[in-house]
Amino acid sequence: MKRATKNLPPLQxxxxxxxxxxxxxxxxxxPQPGSKAILRLHLKNGTTVDLPTxxxxxxxxxxxxxxAFAEAVIADLRQRGWI
Length: 83
Description:
Elements: E1 22-28, E2 37-43, E3 48-53, H1 55-68, H2 70-79
Antiparallel strand pairs: 1-2, 2-3
C-alpha cells in the first residue's frame, strides 16, 4: 500500500474533513499485544484512512450497524448458518 507523504493538518474542535465517496473497507488486527486493530477505509479517489480502534469500539460499531439493518443482518446470519 502506498503511504501518504504528509499527514492531513490537525482538525479544530467541531470541524471535520469532507471525504470523497466510500469504496470499501478492510479490518486489520495486528498480533502484537496491546496494539489496536485498524478499520481501513478506502475512498474512490484512492485515499486510504486508517482508524485505530479498540475491541470495544468495534463492538459498539457492530451493534449500531445491527440496529440500523436488523432484518438484513439476521437474514445474513441465518444464510451463513451462524444462527
